[in-house]
Amino acid sequence: MSRRLSIIYSVLLLIFASPSLLSPVTGDLAGDRQALLDFLNNITHPRSLAWNASSPVCATWSGVTCNRDNTRVTALHLPGASLLGTVPPGTISRLSELEILSLRSNGLRGPFPIDFLQLKKLKAITLSNNKFSGPLPSDYTTWMNLTVLDLFGNRFNGSIPSGLANLTGLLSLNLAENSFSGEIPDLNLPGLRRLNVSNNNLTGSVPKSLSRFARSAFSGNNLTDDNTSPPVGSPAEKEKEQKEDKHGIYISEPAILGIAITEFLGKGTFGMTYKAVLGDAKVIAVKRFKDVPVSRKDFKHQMEIVGNIRHENVAPLRAYVCSKEQKLMVYDYYPTGSLSVLLHGKNGNEDHVPLDWETRLRFLIGLAKGLAHLHTQHKLAHGNIKSSNVFLNSKRYGCISETGLALLTNPVIRADSSARTELRYRAPEAAYDTRRSTPESDIYGFGILMLETLSGRSSMDDKKEDIELVVWMNNVLAEQWTGEVFDLELVKTPNIEAKLLQMIDLVQLCTNRVPVKRPEIAKVVEILEEIERE
Questions:
Q1: Which site from 239, 319, 345, 452 is most exposed, i.e. has the minimal number of CB atoms within 10 Å?
Q2: Rounded to whole angstroms, how far apart are CA atoms 244 and 248?
Q3: What is the DSSP-derived secondary structure letter of residue 483?
Q4: In angstroms, rounded to a whole number, what is the distance separating the alpha carbons of residues 234 and 242?
């Protein structure tokens, strides 16, 4: 008996003495899921985050981004999520692969979450506009990958830690609108591009290592002298601002160096797209063009046209870079993924949650409204409609990306394997010449995308020996097998039969081979909204 007790004691001692056995395993997605659920269950959040323990973390959890293989959580974005109280310790810090953390504009309070320093792969952290208080930690040696630290608009006090100088990769540091006191430490960070310590209680002088930053970065303190560049409002700075604003949304080549590329998203007609992080921890999508057979002047002209388009169903162009070496475009990043990803999974992986009827319909309504805005207000055809270019906006309706880019490509597109996906969306009259795109050819592409959404099949039915989707549909309908057209997930929806028949009628109208017989986009919007109301 005593031996048995001895064995039990030894086992208990082993368990309680081993830190690795005290907390959940965090080396996989299951561990990340549990860490997020523990965070959610231990913090006040009047607004639902829609985190369901039974749903896929990477595909459906709002604010959560995973790596390319969907095996780990790499980013957590919860800005303005009505989070209240203190950050539960031992929750977020268990996301060992986390690279981006944004909790800005909430009601979080208490001291700086010291266990965040365990996130060794962190590249950007934004805690701005909360109610955090107290002094900052002194040691940051675990954050060797950090590029962005934003603590703006809190109640932190004490001195600015000299240990921040160890963050040698830091590009952006924002400590403004707090209650820091004492002198500014000599932060010898040659790579630092953005600094703001304004509106604190700082005294002394500006260190020479930081004198390259404008006076506005230090205003609202009690500094005794000025080693900084010309003050805000001076002729030199006004001239600089005017020069920067001259090109509207244009940003210079050096500015792009402040963007941290975090993930390759995909390759399309115009080039490659990456997920990236700006200096303020905002996540964006960056498209890098391959061959652009137009002059820099024409490229900039087209970018200014596209940049002035503002509509909730058209993905906005936020900025662009045009240099001799490369041409880039900056868009918002949509964490839920494109319609293509939600329909077919990433890289064609069928292991994903089927898209419900309401979401599919809202994708189509939003896309139709976006095209209506382009066609009527800007007299502009999109020219490259496909499911990988359609995303969900903040209102959960579709929005179209890559507007106006068809005019920047080679006029003749080869019918090789790399282009065949895009070709399947193009109307017969514009199949091999993107510069012949018209509102009518957009309607044809919309019809193909609509059929893809209803059937759950890709734009080309690979299982049918290279048969185009519209040909497959017509063959099925000719045999009176209408039910075979629709995704089985849609057929399960109660009272949907009549709506699906209306939708397939609209598909046939949109994909008419005669352009003038296709409906105008305004009529398409009207029909879809009527179906939504039924």
A1: 239
A2: 8
A3: G
A4: 12
Cβ proximity of 166 and 191 under 8 Å:
no
State which H helix or E strand residue 328 sits in.
strand 327-332
Residue 461: CB atoms within 10 Å: 17
Closest CA to 360 of 407, 397, 313: 397
Backbone angles phi, psi at 415, to 5 degrees: -90, 50
Nearest to 200 by CA among 222, 216, 185, 215: 222
Residue 49 and residue 40 in contact, taking contact as beta carbons nearer than 8 Å: yes
- Strand bridging mode 107-110 / 100-102: unpaired
In sequence order, which ranges of 378-436 are alpha helices (DSSP H)?
420-423
Contact partners, residue 445, CB within 8 Å, separation at least 6: 382, 385, 386, 425, 426, 427
From first to last of the 534 residues of the chain, give the pLDDT tens digit.
333 333 323 333 332 333 333 333 346 899 999 999 999 899 987 667 778 888 888 888 888 888 888 899 998 988 778 889 999 999 999 999 999 898 988 899 999 999 999 999 999 898 988 999 999 999 999 999 998 899 989 999 999 999 999 999 998 899 999 999 999 999 888 888 889 999 999 999 999 889 888 888 898 899 876 544 433 333 333 334 333 333 334 444 444 444 555 567 777 767 778 887 765 567 888 888 766 667 777 888 888 888 888 899 999 888 887 776 677 888 888 888 889 888 887 755 555 678 899 999 999 999 999 999 999 988 889 988 999 899 999 889 999 998 878 777 655 444 444 455 566 777 777 766 666 789 999 999 999 999 889 888 875 444 443 456 777 777 766 655 556 678 888 888 888 888 888 998 999 899 898 999 999 999 999 999 999 987
CA separation for the pair 460, 452 (Å, rounded): 9
> Dihedral angle at the C-alpha atoms of 149, 104, 123, 76, nearest 10 degrees?
170
The domains located in the chain, with CATH, are: 22-240 (3.80.10.10), 254-332 (3.30.200.20), 340-533 (1.10.510.10)
Bridging pattern class, strands 131-134 and 107-110:
parallel
Q: Which candidate, 178, 213, 212, 183, places its Cα nearest to that of 198?
A: 178
Q: Would you say 49 and 59 are in contact if contact means Cβ atoms under 8 Å apart?
A: no
Q: What's the farthest any 2 CA atoms get from each other in the chain? A: 93
Q: Tokens 């596209």 correspond to what residue?
A: 306
Residues 149 and 193: their CA atoms lie apart, in Å, by 12
CB 131 within 8 A of CB 107: yes
Using an 8 Å Cβ cutoff, are 408 and 270 in contact?
Answer: yes
120 carries a ligand binding annotation: no
The Cα-based distances of 412 to 160, 298, 406, 407, 446 in angstroms read: 59, 19, 11, 11, 21
Alpha-carbon gap, residue 248 to 64, rounded angstroms: 32
Q: How many CB atoms neighbour CB 149 within 10 A?
A: 22
For 274-356, where are the alpha helices, taking DSSP H only?
Answer: 296-307, 339-344
Compute the distance between CA of residue 504 and CA of residue 487 in angstroms, rounded to an integer. Answer: 12
DSSP conformation class of 412: B
